[in-house]
Design a protein that fits this description.
By secondary structure, the protein is α/β, with parallel strands linked by helices. Helices cover 24% and strands 26% of the residues. It contains eleven helices and 20 strands. It has an eight-stranded mixed beta sheet, with helices on both faces. It has a six-stranded mixed beta sheet with strand order 1-5-6-4-3-2. The longest helix is centred in the first third of the chain and has 18 residues. The chain is globular and about 65 Å long.
Length: 436
Protein backbone atom coordinates (compact mmCIF):
# COMPACT_ATOMS: atom_id res chain seq x y z
CA UNK A 1 0.00 0.00 0.00
CA UNK A 2 1.46 3.41 -0.89
CA UNK A 3 1.70 6.11 1.72
CA UNK A 4 -1.20 8.58 2.06
CA UNK A 5 -3.86 5.93 1.37
CA UNK A 6 -6.89 6.19 3.65
CA UNK A 7 -8.19 3.08 5.44
CA UNK A 8 -10.77 2.18 8.04
CA UNK A 9 -9.28 0.38 11.03
CA UNK A 10 -10.45 -1.34 14.21
CA UNK A 11 -8.19 -0.50 17.15
CA UNK A 12 -7.51 -3.65 19.15
CA UNK A 13 -4.76 -2.86 21.66
CA UNK A 14 -2.35 -0.34 23.16
CA UNK A 15 1.39 -0.40 22.40
CA UNK A 16 4.37 1.08 24.18
CA UNK A 17 5.13 4.63 23.07
CA UNK A 18 1.66 6.16 23.17
CA UNK A 19 0.30 4.52 20.01
CA UNK A 20 -2.45 2.00 19.44
CA UNK A 21 -2.63 -1.18 17.42
CA UNK A 22 -4.77 -2.14 14.44
CA UNK A 23 -4.32 -4.73 11.69
CA UNK A 24 -4.76 -4.27 7.98
CA UNK A 25 -4.19 -6.96 5.38
CA UNK A 26 -2.25 -9.00 7.93
CA UNK A 27 0.10 -6.18 8.90
CA UNK A 28 0.25 -4.29 12.22
CA UNK A 29 -0.64 -0.62 11.92
CA UNK A 30 0.24 1.83 14.71
CA UNK A 31 -2.19 4.73 15.10
CA UNK A 32 -1.95 7.58 17.66
CA UNK A 33 -4.83 9.58 19.15
CA UNK A 34 -7.25 6.66 19.42
CA UNK A 35 -7.83 3.80 21.89
CA UNK A 36 -8.88 0.13 21.91
CA UNK A 37 -12.46 -0.56 20.88
CA UNK A 38 -12.68 2.27 18.35
CA UNK A 39 -13.22 2.20 14.61
CA UNK A 40 -11.38 4.99 12.86
CA UNK A 41 -10.49 6.42 9.50
CA UNK A 42 -6.75 6.86 9.16
CA UNK A 43 -4.15 7.77 6.57
CA UNK A 44 -1.11 5.55 6.12
CA UNK A 45 1.90 7.80 6.71
CA UNK A 46 4.89 5.46 6.92
CA UNK A 47 5.35 2.17 5.06
CA UNK A 48 9.13 1.97 5.38
CA UNK A 49 9.02 -1.02 7.73
CA UNK A 50 8.31 -4.56 6.57
CA UNK A 51 6.59 -5.64 9.79
CA UNK A 52 4.39 -2.63 10.49
CA UNK A 53 3.04 0.64 9.15
CA UNK A 54 2.28 3.92 10.86
CA UNK A 55 -0.89 5.88 10.25
CA UNK A 56 -2.40 9.25 11.16
CA UNK A 57 -5.86 9.46 12.69
CA UNK A 58 -8.28 11.45 10.53
CA UNK A 59 -11.67 10.67 12.05
CA UNK A 60 -13.17 8.60 14.84
CA UNK A 61 -16.06 6.65 13.31
CA UNK A 62 -17.08 4.68 16.40
CA UNK A 63 -15.69 6.10 19.67
CA UNK A 64 -14.92 3.98 22.71
CA UNK A 65 -16.79 4.59 25.94
CA UNK A 66 -13.54 5.77 27.55
CA UNK A 67 -13.00 8.62 25.07
CA UNK A 68 -13.48 12.16 26.34
CA UNK A 69 -12.94 15.67 25.03
CA UNK A 70 -9.18 16.23 24.86
CA UNK A 71 -7.84 18.25 27.79
CA UNK A 72 -5.71 20.31 25.36
CA UNK A 73 -7.48 21.68 22.31
CA UNK A 74 -4.12 22.15 20.57
CA UNK A 75 -3.67 18.34 20.59
CA UNK A 76 -7.21 17.30 19.69
CA UNK A 77 -8.34 15.38 16.59
CA UNK A 78 -10.06 18.54 15.34
CA UNK A 79 -6.62 19.66 14.21
CA UNK A 80 -4.80 18.26 11.19
CA UNK A 81 -2.40 15.46 12.22
CA UNK A 82 0.72 17.51 11.55
CA UNK A 83 -0.58 20.40 13.66
CA UNK A 84 -1.48 18.47 16.82
CA UNK A 85 0.71 19.49 19.75
CA UNK A 86 2.78 16.66 21.16
CA UNK A 87 3.17 15.85 24.83
CA UNK A 88 -0.39 14.92 25.77
CA UNK A 89 -0.99 11.79 23.71
CA UNK A 90 -3.41 10.24 26.24
CA UNK A 91 -5.36 13.45 26.87
CA UNK A 92 -8.41 12.15 24.99
CA UNK A 93 -8.80 9.18 27.35
CA UNK A 94 -10.60 9.10 30.68
CA UNK A 95 -8.00 9.27 33.44
CA UNK A 96 -8.82 5.96 35.12
CA UNK A 97 -8.60 4.20 31.77
CA UNK A 98 -5.24 5.82 31.02
CA UNK A 99 -3.89 4.03 34.10
CA UNK A 100 -5.41 0.75 33.00
CA UNK A 101 -3.71 1.09 29.60
CA UNK A 102 -0.38 1.87 31.25
CA UNK A 103 -0.78 -1.21 33.45
CA UNK A 104 -1.33 -3.33 30.34
CA UNK A 105 1.83 -1.93 28.73
CA UNK A 106 3.89 -2.76 31.83
CA UNK A 107 2.50 -6.27 32.09
CA UNK A 108 3.06 -6.87 28.37
CA UNK A 109 6.70 -5.76 28.76
CA UNK A 110 7.16 -8.05 31.78
CA UNK A 111 5.81 -10.98 29.78
CA UNK A 112 7.49 -10.36 26.42
CA UNK A 113 10.80 -8.77 27.42
CA UNK A 114 11.41 -9.80 31.04
CA UNK A 115 10.05 -13.28 30.18
CA UNK A 116 7.99 -13.55 33.36
CA UNK A 117 5.15 -16.04 33.44
CA UNK A 118 1.55 -15.01 34.04
CA UNK A 119 1.48 -16.31 37.63
CA UNK A 120 4.53 -14.23 38.57
CA UNK A 121 3.11 -11.13 36.89
CA UNK A 122 -0.21 -11.60 38.68
CA UNK A 123 1.57 -11.46 42.05
CA UNK A 124 4.19 -8.80 41.36
CA UNK A 125 2.23 -5.87 42.79
CA UNK A 126 2.34 -4.59 46.37
CA UNK A 127 1.72 -7.30 49.01
CA UNK A 128 1.78 -10.00 46.36
CA UNK A 129 -1.27 -8.71 44.53
CA UNK A 130 -1.95 -7.53 41.02
CA UNK A 131 -0.03 -4.53 39.73
CA UNK A 132 -1.91 -1.25 39.53
CA UNK A 133 -0.84 2.19 38.37
CA UNK A 134 -1.24 4.43 41.39
CA UNK A 135 -2.40 8.03 41.26
CA UNK A 136 -0.32 10.56 43.15
CA UNK A 137 -1.78 12.57 46.06
CA UNK A 138 -3.71 15.67 45.11
CA UNK A 139 -4.22 14.72 41.46
CA UNK A 140 -6.82 16.82 39.64
CA UNK A 141 -9.93 15.18 38.25
CA UNK A 142 -8.75 15.50 34.65
CA UNK A 143 -5.00 15.03 35.27
CA UNK A 144 -3.96 18.60 34.44
CA UNK A 145 -1.93 21.23 36.31
CA UNK A 146 1.06 19.08 37.32
CA UNK A 147 4.06 20.05 35.17
CA UNK A 148 6.54 22.30 36.98
CA UNK A 149 8.92 22.36 34.03
CA UNK A 150 8.13 22.88 30.35
CA UNK A 151 10.45 23.19 27.36
CA UNK A 152 8.99 24.93 24.32
CA UNK A 153 10.74 24.80 20.96
CA UNK A 154 11.49 27.82 18.79
CA UNK A 155 10.44 27.78 15.14
CA UNK A 156 12.32 29.38 12.27
CA UNK A 157 10.22 32.51 12.61
CA UNK A 158 10.95 32.74 16.35
CA UNK A 159 7.55 31.55 17.55
CA UNK A 160 7.47 29.14 20.47
CA UNK A 161 5.47 26.00 21.10
CA UNK A 162 5.76 22.23 21.42
CA UNK A 163 6.69 20.03 18.52
CA UNK A 164 3.85 18.29 16.76
CA UNK A 165 3.94 14.62 17.69
CA UNK A 166 6.78 12.71 15.99
CA UNK A 167 7.89 15.79 14.00
CA UNK A 168 10.07 18.87 14.36
CA UNK A 169 7.20 21.17 13.43
CA UNK A 170 6.65 23.84 16.09
CA UNK A 171 2.97 24.28 16.98
CA UNK A 172 2.15 27.74 18.43
CA UNK A 173 -0.13 27.42 21.47
CA UNK A 174 -1.93 29.78 23.81
CA UNK A 175 -2.16 27.53 26.84
CA UNK A 176 -0.42 24.64 28.63
CA UNK A 177 -3.09 22.75 30.58
CA UNK A 178 -0.70 20.09 31.87
CA UNK A 179 1.46 22.78 33.49
CA UNK A 180 0.99 24.29 36.92
CA UNK A 181 -0.64 27.69 37.10
CA UNK A 182 2.74 29.30 37.88
CA UNK A 183 4.31 27.84 34.74
CA UNK A 184 1.39 28.75 32.50
CA UNK A 185 1.22 32.31 33.83
CA UNK A 186 4.97 32.78 33.25
CA UNK A 187 5.02 31.40 29.70
CA UNK A 188 5.63 34.16 27.13
CA UNK A 189 2.87 33.12 24.72
CA UNK A 190 2.94 35.08 21.48
CA UNK A 191 6.48 36.39 21.92
CA UNK A 192 9.21 35.56 19.41
CA UNK A 193 12.73 34.39 20.17
CA UNK A 194 14.67 34.53 16.89
CA UNK A 195 18.01 32.74 17.02
CA UNK A 196 17.06 30.64 20.03
CA UNK A 197 16.65 26.88 20.11
CA UNK A 198 14.16 26.54 22.96
CA UNK A 199 12.68 28.24 26.02
CA UNK A 200 12.44 26.59 29.43
CA UNK A 201 9.82 27.66 31.95
CA UNK A 202 10.52 26.46 35.48
CA UNK A 203 8.43 26.98 38.61
CA UNK A 204 9.88 25.73 41.87
CA UNK A 205 7.89 24.39 44.77
CA UNK A 206 9.09 27.35 46.82
CA UNK A 207 7.40 29.88 44.54
CA UNK A 208 10.20 31.07 42.24
CA UNK A 209 9.67 31.08 38.46
CA UNK A 210 12.26 31.31 35.68
CA UNK A 211 12.03 31.78 31.92
CA UNK A 212 15.30 30.56 30.38
CA UNK A 213 16.15 31.13 26.72
CA UNK A 214 18.45 28.50 25.21
CA UNK A 215 20.57 29.57 22.23
CA UNK A 216 21.07 27.39 19.19
CA UNK A 217 24.24 25.30 18.99
CA UNK A 218 27.01 27.38 17.46
CA UNK A 219 27.24 25.64 14.06
CA UNK A 220 23.47 25.84 13.59
CA UNK A 221 23.35 29.48 14.62
CA UNK A 222 26.07 30.42 12.10
CA UNK A 223 24.85 28.24 9.30
CA UNK A 224 27.11 25.34 10.20
CA UNK A 225 29.94 23.70 8.37
CA UNK A 226 30.07 20.31 6.74
CA UNK A 227 31.41 17.71 9.13
CA UNK A 228 31.45 20.15 12.01
CA UNK A 229 29.78 19.07 15.22
CA UNK A 230 27.59 21.85 16.64
CA UNK A 231 29.02 23.29 19.84
CA UNK A 232 26.58 23.74 22.69
CA UNK A 233 26.69 27.29 24.04
CA UNK A 234 27.82 27.64 27.62
CA UNK A 235 24.84 28.27 29.82
CA UNK A 236 25.31 30.04 33.11
CA UNK A 237 23.84 28.01 35.95
CA UNK A 238 20.66 29.30 37.51
CA UNK A 239 20.67 27.99 41.08
CA UNK A 240 17.28 27.17 42.54
CA UNK A 241 16.02 25.29 45.58
CA UNK A 242 13.32 22.65 45.82
CA UNK A 243 11.74 21.23 48.94
CA UNK A 244 10.70 17.63 49.60
CA UNK A 245 9.03 17.30 52.98
CA UNK A 246 11.22 19.23 55.39
CA UNK A 247 14.38 18.91 53.27
CA UNK A 248 15.63 21.42 50.69
CA UNK A 249 17.74 20.55 47.64
CA UNK A 250 20.00 22.85 45.65
CA UNK A 251 20.10 22.36 41.87
CA UNK A 252 20.39 24.18 38.56
CA UNK A 253 17.09 25.29 37.03
CA UNK A 254 18.03 23.46 33.81
CA UNK A 255 19.20 20.38 35.68
CA UNK A 256 17.19 17.22 36.13
CA UNK A 257 14.34 17.27 38.61
CA UNK A 258 11.11 15.31 38.46
CA UNK A 259 8.55 17.37 36.55
CA UNK A 260 5.35 16.40 38.41
CA UNK A 261 4.84 18.66 41.42
CA UNK A 262 4.34 15.59 43.67
CA UNK A 263 6.85 13.25 42.02
CA UNK A 264 9.88 13.89 44.27
CA UNK A 265 7.83 13.18 47.41
CA UNK A 266 6.12 10.18 45.81
CA UNK A 267 9.41 8.58 44.75
CA UNK A 268 11.05 9.39 48.08
CA UNK A 269 8.28 7.49 49.85
CA UNK A 270 8.24 4.65 47.31
CA UNK A 271 11.99 4.04 47.49
CA UNK A 272 11.95 4.05 51.28
CA UNK A 273 9.13 1.50 51.20
CA UNK A 274 10.90 -0.62 48.60
CA UNK A 275 13.99 -1.05 50.80
CA UNK A 276 13.75 -3.98 53.21
CA UNK A 277 14.73 -2.54 56.58
CA UNK A 278 15.78 -5.97 57.84
CA UNK A 279 18.33 -6.20 55.02
CA UNK A 280 19.56 -2.60 54.93
CA UNK A 281 22.96 -2.03 56.56
CA UNK A 282 23.78 1.68 57.05
CA UNK A 283 27.50 0.81 57.32
CA UNK A 284 27.60 -1.08 54.02
CA UNK A 285 28.89 0.36 50.74
CA UNK A 286 25.43 1.51 49.66
CA UNK A 287 25.13 3.04 46.20
CA UNK A 288 22.85 5.61 44.59
CA UNK A 289 23.49 5.29 40.83
CA UNK A 290 22.42 7.98 38.33
CA UNK A 291 21.95 9.95 41.53
CA UNK A 292 21.33 13.44 40.15
CA UNK A 293 21.34 15.96 42.99
CA UNK A 294 20.93 13.29 45.67
CA UNK A 295 17.15 13.00 46.05
CA UNK A 296 17.05 9.22 46.58
CA UNK A 297 20.30 9.09 48.55
CA UNK A 298 18.74 11.61 50.95
CA UNK A 299 15.58 9.49 51.09
CA UNK A 300 17.63 6.60 52.47
CA UNK A 301 19.69 8.84 54.73
CA UNK A 302 16.60 10.34 56.30
CA UNK A 303 15.09 6.91 56.87
CA UNK A 304 18.15 5.14 58.25
CA UNK A 305 19.89 7.91 60.13
CA UNK A 306 23.06 9.99 60.30
CA UNK A 307 25.44 7.01 60.17
CA UNK A 308 24.18 5.99 56.73
CA UNK A 309 27.00 5.40 54.29
CA UNK A 310 26.06 5.96 50.64
CA UNK A 311 27.87 6.98 47.48
CA UNK A 312 25.88 8.90 44.87
CA UNK A 313 27.21 8.57 41.31
CA UNK A 314 26.24 10.99 38.53
CA UNK A 315 27.92 11.93 35.24
CA UNK A 316 26.84 15.59 35.33
CA UNK A 317 29.49 17.50 37.28
CA UNK A 318 27.19 20.38 38.23
CA UNK A 319 24.60 17.95 39.60
CA UNK A 320 27.32 16.14 41.56
CA UNK A 321 28.42 19.42 43.12
CA UNK A 322 24.84 20.06 44.18
CA UNK A 323 24.53 16.50 45.51
CA UNK A 324 27.62 17.02 47.65
CA UNK A 325 25.94 19.97 49.36
CA UNK A 326 22.56 18.27 49.60
CA UNK A 327 24.11 15.21 51.30
CA UNK A 328 26.61 17.10 53.46
CA UNK A 329 24.98 16.25 56.80
CA UNK A 330 25.73 12.54 56.42
CA UNK A 331 29.38 11.91 57.26
CA UNK A 332 29.35 8.68 55.30
CA UNK A 333 27.76 10.16 52.17
CA UNK A 334 29.76 11.17 49.11
CA UNK A 335 29.01 12.34 45.59
CA UNK A 336 31.14 11.11 42.67
CA UNK A 337 31.23 12.51 39.15
CA UNK A 338 31.50 9.55 36.78
CA UNK A 339 29.64 7.66 34.12
CA UNK A 340 27.83 4.91 35.98
CA UNK A 341 28.97 2.14 33.63
CA UNK A 342 32.61 3.13 34.18
CA UNK A 343 32.21 3.49 37.94
CA UNK A 344 30.52 0.15 38.61
CA UNK A 345 32.72 -1.77 36.18
CA UNK A 346 35.86 -0.45 37.87
CA UNK A 347 34.41 -1.03 41.34
CA UNK A 348 33.50 -4.63 40.52
CA UNK A 349 36.97 -5.29 39.09
CA UNK A 350 39.15 -3.48 41.63
CA UNK A 351 37.37 -3.72 45.00
CA UNK A 352 39.48 -5.04 47.86
CA UNK A 353 38.34 -7.95 50.01
CA UNK A 354 37.07 -5.55 52.68
CA UNK A 355 35.22 -3.47 50.07
CA UNK A 356 33.64 -6.60 48.63
CA UNK A 357 32.30 -7.50 52.05
CA UNK A 358 30.72 -4.06 52.38
CA UNK A 359 29.32 -4.34 48.84
CA UNK A 360 27.70 -7.71 49.60
CA UNK A 361 25.84 -6.02 52.45
CA UNK A 362 24.88 -3.04 50.31
CA UNK A 363 21.60 -1.69 49.01
CA UNK A 364 21.91 -0.39 45.45
CA UNK A 365 19.42 2.20 44.21
CA UNK A 366 19.53 3.08 40.52
CA UNK A 367 17.42 5.57 38.58
CA UNK A 368 18.74 5.40 35.01
CA UNK A 369 17.62 7.51 32.04
CA UNK A 370 14.83 6.36 29.74
CA UNK A 371 17.17 4.00 27.88
CA UNK A 372 17.72 1.99 31.07
CA UNK A 373 20.91 0.74 32.70
CA UNK A 374 21.93 -1.83 30.09
CA UNK A 375 23.76 -5.14 30.21
CA UNK A 376 27.20 -3.86 31.29
CA UNK A 377 25.85 -1.98 34.31
CA UNK A 378 23.61 -4.88 35.31
CA UNK A 379 26.47 -7.37 35.08
CA UNK A 380 28.76 -5.19 37.18
CA UNK A 381 26.12 -4.62 39.88
CA UNK A 382 25.15 -8.30 40.02
CA UNK A 383 28.79 -9.40 40.22
CA UNK A 384 29.16 -7.42 43.48
CA UNK A 385 26.30 -9.51 44.99
CA UNK A 386 24.53 -6.67 46.88
CA UNK A 387 21.89 -7.55 49.45
CA UNK A 388 19.09 -5.78 47.56
CA UNK A 389 18.50 -3.62 44.50
CA UNK A 390 15.88 -0.91 44.04
CA UNK A 391 15.38 0.07 40.40
CA UNK A 392 13.48 3.27 39.56
CA UNK A 393 12.37 3.32 35.92
CA UNK A 394 10.55 5.67 33.57
CA UNK A 395 10.37 3.25 30.64
CA UNK A 396 8.67 -0.14 31.08
CA UNK A 397 10.38 -1.86 28.15
CA UNK A 398 13.88 -0.76 29.20
CA UNK A 399 13.04 -1.84 32.75
CA UNK A 400 11.81 -5.24 31.56
CA UNK A 401 14.98 -5.77 29.52
CA UNK A 402 17.16 -4.99 32.54
CA UNK A 403 15.01 -7.19 34.78
CA UNK A 404 15.74 -10.08 32.43
CA UNK A 405 19.48 -9.37 32.69
CA UNK A 406 19.28 -9.23 36.50
CA UNK A 407 17.25 -12.45 36.68
CA UNK A 408 19.88 -14.26 34.59
CA UNK A 409 22.42 -13.25 37.25
CA UNK A 410 20.43 -14.35 40.25
CA UNK A 411 18.34 -11.26 41.04
CA UNK A 412 14.68 -11.96 40.28
CA UNK A 413 11.96 -9.34 40.57
CA UNK A 414 10.34 -9.42 44.02
CA UNK A 415 7.87 -6.55 43.82
CA UNK A 416 6.88 -3.68 41.58
CA UNK A 417 4.89 -0.49 42.08
CA UNK A 418 3.86 1.86 39.28
CA UNK A 419 2.94 5.53 39.59
CA UNK A 420 1.08 7.84 37.24
CA UNK A 421 3.58 10.69 37.41
CA UNK A 422 2.76 11.82 33.85
CA UNK A 423 -1.05 12.04 33.49
CA UNK A 424 -2.41 12.52 29.97
CA UNK A 425 0.79 11.09 28.48
CA UNK A 426 1.82 7.47 27.90
CA UNK A 427 4.71 7.71 30.37
CA UNK A 428 4.67 5.88 33.69
CA UNK A 429 7.17 5.52 36.56
CA UNK A 430 7.91 2.23 38.29
CA UNK A 431 9.89 1.17 41.38
CA UNK A 432 11.10 -2.44 41.42
CA UNK A 433 12.76 -4.42 44.21
CA UNK A 434 15.16 -7.25 43.41
CA UNK A 435 16.88 -9.58 45.87
CA UNK A 436 19.13 -12.60 45.38
Amino acid sequence: MPQKDEVELDIINVAHGGVFVARHEGRVVFVPDTLPGERVRARVADTAHDRFWRAELLEVLEPAAERREHVWDAASVRRAPGQRAGGAEFGHIRLDHQRELKRRVIEDALQRTARLDSDTIAAVGPDGGRLTVEAVPGETEDGTGWRTRVRLQVGRDGTIGPFAARTHTVVPVTGLPLATAAVEESTPFGQRFPGAESVDIVATGLGATHVLVNDLPEANAKGGGRGRRPARPRRRPVPIRERVGEREFRLDARGFWQVHREAPATLTSAVRSAVDEAVFDPRAANLDLYGGVGLLAAALGDRFGPTTRITSVESDEAATDDAAENLAEWVGASAVTARVEHFVTALAADASAAERTRLRAATVVLDPPRSGAGRDVVEAIASMRPAQIVYVACDPVALARDLAYFAERGYPLRSLRAFDLFPNTHHVEAVATLTP
